[in-house]
Specification:
7 helices, alpha+beta, binds calcium ion, Phosphatase 2c, domain 1, about 35% helix, five-stranded antiparallel sheet
Amino acid sequence: MIAAAATDRGRARTNNEDSVFADAARGILIVADGMGGHLGGEVASRLAVEVISANLLSAPPQLEPSRLLAEALDAANLAIWQTAAADSSLTGMGTTVAVVLVRDDELWLAHAGDSRIYLFRQGRLERLTRDHTLVEQMVEAGELTPEQARVHPLRNVISRCLGTEPTAEPEIRKATWKQGDSVLLCSDGLTGMLEDEEIAQVLSEQKAPPDALCRKLIDLANERGGWDNISVVLARHTG
Ligand code: CA
């Protein structure tokens, strides 16, 4: 596989609280979107990426992927929780996380919060994660349509993340991909600005390298206003 990661402050925020990671050789992809006052958001997302990538890189390869992911996210959760407890300026910090561990044709997914993982196959974009947000719960309960959820005043309220509780509750599952497919991880700074169809249109340029497509998605989100930090990790199964 080939992969690229890019993150951008956007046009409205004064700092970037997102963190990204991509290691194509080891099949590790991560997006984290931090939150919290002062420097909390930046610290939380950076810690998440550091601890999760270090755990995944150092683990024995025979370890079962879902267990490996659970342990890596637990370790990150604890690191953020403990760092916040030790520094009053970081109280309450947390971060979303979206992680993909690639094992040949298997995609092992772990996420908490509203950062998303998509599969792009033959021109079609399929969302592989559900947002852990209040509005997504309301959509599932039939109280809101997806269109209403998109513009709802409480759309940023997330129901799960890392770092704000002593234990994490990520969602972990397996998907599969094949030659020609791409997997996209992104923060809500991308999906809040662009419709899925627009993202799919950019990803359809299969001849362009992943880093060029990441840049193009970020540029497009900025053209639409760039209200939030924008992060994109893109990997392509090259067979
Ligand atoms: Ca965000």
